[in-house]
Amino acid sequence: MTAPYKTEKFAKYEPLIKAYQKARDDQMEKYDPKFYAACLAKLPSQQEFDSEPIDATQFVKADFGLLSEKEAAIVNDYTLQQLLAKQLEGKLTAKEIAHAFIKSSIIAQIATNCVMQFMFDKALSQAAKSDEFLKTNKQLKGPLHGIPISLKEHMEIKGSVTHASYVSLIEHVSKNTNVSIQLVENMGATTHVRTSQPQAIMHLDTINNVIGRTRNPLSTRLSPGGSSGGESAIVGMHGSVLGIGSDIGGSIRCPAAFANIYGLRPTTKRFSGLYSVSGGGGQESVVPTMGPLARSTAELNAFMDHYINDGKPWLLDPSSVPLPWNTSPQLPAKIRVGVLFTDGIVTPFPAVTRTMHEVVENLKQNPSVEVVDLKKYWLSAEDMIKANETVSTLYTCDGNRAQKELLVPSGEPILPLTEFFFGHNEGKHLSVYENHELNKIRDATKLKVFQNVFPHCDFILSPAYAGPPEIPELSKYWGYTAFWNLVDYPNLVFPTPFQHDPAKDTEIPPLYDNVFERMHWNDKDGKIRYDPKAYEGAHIALQLTGPRYQDESLIAATEVLTKSLGIGRR
After folding, report:
1. For residues 400-405, average pLDDT
2. pLDDT for the residue numbered 8
């Protein structure tokens, strides 16, 4: 399947795309014409956002002048727990909170192009009902009472269009509401915005033919990651308290890393994705999961506690494991943190390696942490190459048929990273026997991690991506995240205080000789593509991995690391 694909067929869809974009933009103007006009007047142009390394988070601060002091405090300063407390105390209403986050989400959209659909009327109605409930009953409607939560658009909402960035589905009206949306709304959350994902939902970037490119909130000319890039942008811009994304190859963790926020990929089957649109339905060799992106570990933990213990997803989704959330995980007095500076086949760009060393040196001074070098325990380069080939082949094991059935009807242009994804294993269709043989490799790899690595450590510290937040359309190596999807160990991406430095991060390190290293480091002509100046404004986040179904301990261990680094809420 090759471009050009912009045929007469696609031309028939272009008016629908324009109408879809206009409906979204009209919502911003309709909500508050004066506020919207002020945003357009004060914020940089779309061209400037695309070409300059602008930190867009400055625009939601009170001193920038778009949000009042009270609104800025609501979106910037108060945690999920504090917002609940202030409503109980009568110091804030759910409607005041909703209005503040509606405004910050408008700013986020103009700066980063992260929104597919605004749902302001619905959110304000939800907030009004929450306020009335509290007034009448003197208690909160639920544990997420009045908390604005953003949603990745491919999560279905009954009666609304859900297209998942497939142009052919731009008039597809969902018949069901995603189970996780049902749960958070039943617990009192306000759902005010649905966010962007890339074409095919299989890029570590966020570009599609419905609304175009989503930008990084901390350096707008860079990528926000993918496929939950709309979520990383809006959470990073304080346009929601937290967001729900999905992850089959890094789609929560890569965006969280690129926005320097927190992102949890839970062990599979703990977080329901029932009633979502994608091109991967029925594929069970690499199981996707949904999970939260937030600005602190405390908010991740509180949300997961409420989602699992109060929401009980297994009552609506039989695939969800009925495993309660442990609210008091016990860590060893001294946690053993195994360190992987590299996965053994792809060398990270200099800023990531420097950050890893800085963090490790910090942890060595922490009496609560024992640092373990995992180099001698880790899988061989041969095993890692086989694992990466296996996971990428499993993604496309149907010869990309399911994806093509969603892309071909509209004739939409096939984007470069979609072409790249389709090229895994040359896009070959596997037999059932071949699929089973790859599943055997998956299971053997999972066992090697269990038997050879985890006896020597409690958690594994590694890069979240092989570079800083990436230049758009260049995120090709998924190994630092997708490996963990293959073997299904939970991960948490967390921010660090370190940034890419164009003056420091200049030296090209010794490189491995394999196709994955060249995929990451080289351009199409085989030359080194790394340019230190291109990553200005990029922050570096890292990834912590824990044992399966010990997601609670993983969050607790991450808190130990971030406290040691002096990192708090973003």
Report:
1. 97
2. 85
